[in-house]
Specification:
Blueprint (H helix, E strand, L loop, with lengths): L4 E2 L8 E5 L2 E4 L7 E9 L5 E7 L3 E6 L16 E6 L11 E4 L5 E7 L6 E7 L11 E5 L9 E9 L5 E7 L5 E6 L10
Antiparallel strand pairs: 1-7, 2-3, 4-5, 5-6, 6-7, 8-9, 9-10, 10-11, 12-13, 13-14
Length: 191
C-alpha cells in the first residue's frame, strides 16, 4: 500500500476564497473523496488529512515541508499518498488520524465491505532528509477478525509512553472493542 505518491499541485480552481480570512481547498479534486475523513494539525502547524477516495481506497495528504502551511504559495500544494489502495470506504465511517511530535502518522480506519468489515491500523514513520517518501504499514487490528462489521466508528488516544489506546464500535452487535497499539512495533491490538 502507498505506492501512489502525488505531489502535483492542485488545479488553480481547487482553491476558493470562502469569506474574508477563510480559504477552501479541494484536496482530491474530482476523486469522489471525503468518506471517513480526519484532519489534524501537527506541532509545526501543517495540516494532515486522511480520506476515502472513490469508495475503494484510503489516502493521506499533508502540506509538504518548505511551503506555507496556510495561505500564499502553500494553497493548493499537497503531498498525497495511499494509506491503503484496496480499502472499501463509506461516508458513514468515522476514522482517526494522529501525527506525533516526531512526525509519525498513525491512522485507524474501517475497511468497509458489504458483508464483513474490519478495523485496520496504519503507521507512517517519520521522513528522513533526502530519502523517498515514507509509505504506510497497514496492520489488521484483530489477529483473528470475527465475521461482522467492526470499526465503522473508531478513535485513537495517545498515551505518554508513545503507544495508543484504540477504541472501535462493532456495528452488528453494538459492542466496543478496546486495545493497545504500539506504532513502533505495529501488530494486532493487545487486549
Amino acid at each position: 500500500a502507498g505506492a501512489d505518491v502525488d505531489v502535483a499541485p492542485s488545479p488553480k480552481d481547487a482553491t476558493k476564497l470562502l469569506s474574508p480570512g477563510w480559504v477552501g481547498e479541494d484536496i482530491a479534486f474530482g476523486d469522489e473523496a471525503g468518506a471517513g475523513s480526519a484532519l489534524v494539525v501537527d506541532k509545526h502547524g501543517r495540516p494532515h488529512l486522511m480520506y476515502g477516495v472513490g469508495g475503494d481506497r484510503v489516502r493521506y495528504a499533508r502540506r509538504p515541508e518548505g511551503v506555507p502551511a496556510f495561505g500564499g504559495s502553500g494553497d493548493g500544494t499537497w503531498e498525497k499518498l495511499d494509506i491503503d489502495h484496496q480499502s472499501g470506504q463509506s461516508p458513514l465511517l468515522r476514522n482517526a488520524l494522529v501525527v506525533e511530535d516526531d512526525g509519525t502518522a498513525v491512522a485507524s480506519y474501517c475497511d468497509w465491505q458489504v458483508a464483513m468489515s474490519h478495523l485496520n491500523l496504519a503507521v507512517r514513520a517519520p521522513e528522513r532528509a533526502g530519502a523517498p517518501p515514507t509509505l504506510f504499514t497497514v496492520t489488521l487490528a484483530r489477529e483473528q477478525p470475527k465475521p461482522g462489521i467492526d470499526g465503522p466508528s473508531n478513535a485513537l488516544l495517545a498515551r505518554p509512553d508513545g503507544t495508543f489506546d484504540v477504541a472501535a464500535v462493532r456495528l452488528d452487535d453494538g459492542s466496543v472493542q478496546l486495545g493497545a497499539f504500539d506504532p513502533k512495533k505495529p501488530a494486532a491490538l493487545l487486549d
